[in-house]
C-alpha cells in the first residue's frame, strides 16, 4: 500500500530565509508525486509534480522539489520565503488511481 | 468555468441524522475522490472512484457511503452522523493518466452535535 510521511508538523522561518519541507513516500512501482499548498480557509493548489525524467522539478511561486529514489524522498524547497508563503503544504502520491496525502506541514513566516 | 463544486458549504447535524454531500465537476474527469481534513491528520481518503461505475474504499471509509451517479457527480452519504465525523470534507477530481493533477472543491464544513 502506498503512503506518504511528512516528518515536520510545523516549521517557522524568517522572511527571506530558505525553506525545505521533507516528504518520504512508500510505493512499490514508479511513484507519481505532487506537492500542494493550502492557504488558510482555502482549497488546495498544485505547486508541482514529478512522474519521470529530471529529478529536480520546478513549480509555481518559486518552489522546486528534488526526487531521490534511493532515499524515497521528494523534498520541497524555496530559496527565499515571502510572507505570503505562510500556509499548509501537502505531499501526495498516486498509485493505481488512488491519491494519498501526507499529514501536512504548516509553515509560519516571521518578519 | 466552475471546476469542482461542492454543496453545501456548511452544515450542522444532530447525532444520528443523515445527509448527503454533493460534488460535481465539469472538466470531464474520470477519477473523483472524497477526503476529510482534520487538524494534524492531513487529508485522509474516504472513498474514490477511478471511473464512472466504480468505487473503492480509501483509508477511512467506515460510516460513509458513496455513489458515482454519472461521470460528473460523486456524492458522499452519512447514514447516521456521529460527532467523530465533524470535519471539513473535500471533493476532488483528476483526468486521465496517473500524472495528472487533482482539482479540489472549496470544502464542506460539517459539524455533528
Q: Could you describe the 3D structure shown?
A:
The complex is a heterodimer of chains A (111) and B (113). Chain A has strands spanning 3-5, 10-14, 19-21, 24-26, 32-38, 44-50, 56-58, 64-68, 73-78, 87-95, 98-101, 105-110. Chain A is built from no helices and 12 strands. Chain A is mostly beta strands. In chain A, strands 2, 5, 6, 10, 11 and 12 form a 6-stranded mixed sheet that branches. A 4-stranded antiparallel sheet of chain A has the order 3-9-8-7, with no helix packed on it. Chain B has strands at 4-7, 10-13, 19-25, 31-38, 42-49, 56-57, 64-68, 74-78, 87-94, 102-104, 108-112. The relative contact order of chain B is 0.33. Helix content of chain B is 0%, strand content 52%. Chain B is an all-beta fold. The mean pLDDT of chain B is 94. Chain B has no helices and 11 strands. In chain B, strands 2, 4, 5, 6, 9, 10 and 11 form a 7-stranded mixed sheet that branches. Chains A and B meet through strand 6, strand 10 and strand 11 of A and strand 4, strand 5 and strand 9 of B.
- The ordered string of helix (H) and strand (E) elements of chain B is EEEEEEEEEEE
Please tell me the overall pLDDT of chain A: 93
In percent, how helical is the residue content of chain A?
A: under 10%
Shape of chain A: globular
Total number of helical segments of chain B?
0
Oligomer: heterodimer
Summary keywords:
heterodimer; A: 111 residues; mainly beta; 4-stranded antiparallel beta sheet; 12 strands; 55% strand; globular; B: mainly beta; 7-stranded mixed beta sheet
How would you concisely characterize the structure shown here?
Chain A is an all-beta fold.
Summarize the helices and strands and which ones pair or pack.
The complex is a heterodimer of chains A (about 110) and B (about 110).
Chain A: E1 3-5, E2 10-14, E3 19-21, E4 24-26, E5 32-38, E6 44-50, E7 56-58, E8 64-68, E9 73-78, E10 87-95, E11 98-101, E12 105-110
Parallel strand pairs in A: 2-12
Antiparallel strand pairs in A: 1-4, 3-9, 5-6, 5-10, 7-8, 8-9, 10-11, 10-12
Chain B: E1 4-7, E2 10-13, E3 19-25, E4 31-38, E5 42-49, E6 56-57, E7 64-68, E8 74-78, E9 87-94, E10 102-104, E11 108-112
